[in-house]
């Protein structure tokens, strides 16, 4: 069964995350998208499927988006958001994917009347395999929440949070998680090279091992811990390696410290 077309949207910022979401919306079918993006190269690949302007002031007169998606850099929020206040006052839902910017802070920049959903997607959205956690601010209606869910579901699995503060941990785990996985592929490749394997083979093997393991995890109903156990023969090579990685001061402790550091930084950005 085909899904209904999406309504008109105003996208503020078309970097990697904004572009990934935009591609998903265009695939789903969307009434119209106006993109505010000062760098023409960022939207060149979308051609005439979208309307691009370099500032909010140049959005076509009479355009009434159902939702405004804030995908600009957090440090640009104070300059970019006030120009969107008119759309927020007119009833457009505001969906922010800016790290660290709270609902109250966004609302204040938009004149105090905005209905805001704060969302934290991750970069696998670019291949429609993302994960997004959302928090609905005060006054967001059930219909608006359903719209946000439909937009974000076009590129990711969606979960809703009961407390806004949980987004800091989501940012650390899910938002940054792809980087940690890519780092795993990097260090596997380097370790393979250090054991005498050719560079090209090491890269192919590391990338495919990480990607294939992720696909297996996604397809399995087993816990990650059980899948790990299934690969680990008693007294075998994998067990020997895991004895190093899972030592008390090794990988589990380092990952916990890393997530704590990223969570703390997310809170700092919100401050």
Sum this structure up briefly.
With 271 residues, this protein is an alpha/beta fold.
Radius of gyration: 21 Å
Overall 3D form: elongated
Strand % is 5-15%
Instruction: Give the biggest beta sheet.
Output: 8 strands, mixed
Topology:
Layout: E1 9-12, H1 16-28, E2 33-36, H2 40-43, E3 51-53, E4 67-70, H3 77-80, H4 85-89, E5 93-96, H5 103-109, E6 115-120, E7 130-136, H6 142-153, E8 156-160, H7 166-175, H8 177-194, H9 199-219, H10 224-231, H11 237-245, H12 251-270
Parallel strand pairs: 1-2, 1-4, 2-3, 4-5, 5-6, 7-8
Antiparallel strand pairs: 6-7
Helix pairs in contact: 7-12, 8-9
Would you mind describing this structure in some detail?
The structure is a single chain. This protein is an alpha/beta fold. Helices cover 48% and strands 14% of the residues. It has an eight-stranded mixed beta sheet, sandwiched between helices. It is elongated, with a radius of gyration of 21 Å. The relative contact order is 0.10.
List keywords for this structure.
single chain, 271 residues, alpha/beta, eight-stranded mixed β-sheet, 14% strand, elongated
